[in-house]
Write a sequence for this structure.
């Protein structure tokens, strides 16, 4: 382990250190299991998770920014939940709302990071522009939504370039489309109560194959993308409101300090 990381861990809160080592142990166990199964994609995810775990401590060490204990623990749990539980243990498939919960939390955390950057500058004497509380909250909100949109760009690119299905498809029973209008007019045709759809394709051997999708039509990631952005919006709004109240009442709204990093003097 890097000496800088060791020093930060030594100075860190005991709760954070405990969570870090417990999660790190679980990731290493998962890494060993994936090596035995020769699942190299999951091996990469485990290594990536271990690297991501060090980011909060690198930020603390290199940029002299103190991350509140609760925020650090949430970040570590978020990384573990997304990569190990979500991807490797397939919690995205097992638990219907797992992806929704993580995207909501991502909106919240991204807003916290955006808010902290502006609030730190706002309180620095060298920064000549002082933003009002509403504008600081607005910047935090916009920062969070930008991160959310960039992530959806990443998912779309992964699907288009590498056929990864990061934008999870889902079966819907109703479609509304102008493509099926017999007169080619800009008037949508609504097809409701779809019982099944059939996809015909030619396989590698040149034979015609049919795949039947029961109980509806396969939506290709659009609903998943919009749902992710909507819950990201909710998380961003929640933290932006918390940030606004914190700036207006720093002495009274102490709960916000659990999520807002501060620069060490």
């Amino acid at each position: 382990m890097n000496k800088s990381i060791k020093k930060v861990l030594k100075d860190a809160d005991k709760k954070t250190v405990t969570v870090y080592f417990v999660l790190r142990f679980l990731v290493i166990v998962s890494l060993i299991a994936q090596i035995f199964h020769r699942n190299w994609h999951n091996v990469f995810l485990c290594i990536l998770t271990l690297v991501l775990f060090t980011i909060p401590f690198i930020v603390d060490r290199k940029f002299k920014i103190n991350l509140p204990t609760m925020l650090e623990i949430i970040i570590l749990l978020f990384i573990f939940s997304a990569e190990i539980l979500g991807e490797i243990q397939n919690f995205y498939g097992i638990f219907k709302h797992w992806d929704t919960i993580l995207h909501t939390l991502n909106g919240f955390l991204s807003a916290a990071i955006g808010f902290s950057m502006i609030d730190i500058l706002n309180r620095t004497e060298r920064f000549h522009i002082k933003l009002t509380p509403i504008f600081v909250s607005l910047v935090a909100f916009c920062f969070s939504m930008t991160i959310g949109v960039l992530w959806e760009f990443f998912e779309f690119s992964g699907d288009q370039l590498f056929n990864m299905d990061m934008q999870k498809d889902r079966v819907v029973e109703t479609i509304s489309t102008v493509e099926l209008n017999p007169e080619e007019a800009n008037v949508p045709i609504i097809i409701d109560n779809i019982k099944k759809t059939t996809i015909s394709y030619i396989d590698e051997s040149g034979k015609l194959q049919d795949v039947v999708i029961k109980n509806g039509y396969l939506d290709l990631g659009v609903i998943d993308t919009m749902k992710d952005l909507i819950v990201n919006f909710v998380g961003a709004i929640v933290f932006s409101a918390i940030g606004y109240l914190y700036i207006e009442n720093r002495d009274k709204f102490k709960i916000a300090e659990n999520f807002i990093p501060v620069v060490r003097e």
Summary: The mean pLDDT is 89. The chain has three domains: 1-95, 97-169+232-260, 170-219. Strands lie at 65-66, 170-172, 175-177, 189-191, 196-202, 208-214, 217-219, 262-263. The CA atoms of residues 143 and 195 lie 42 Å apart.
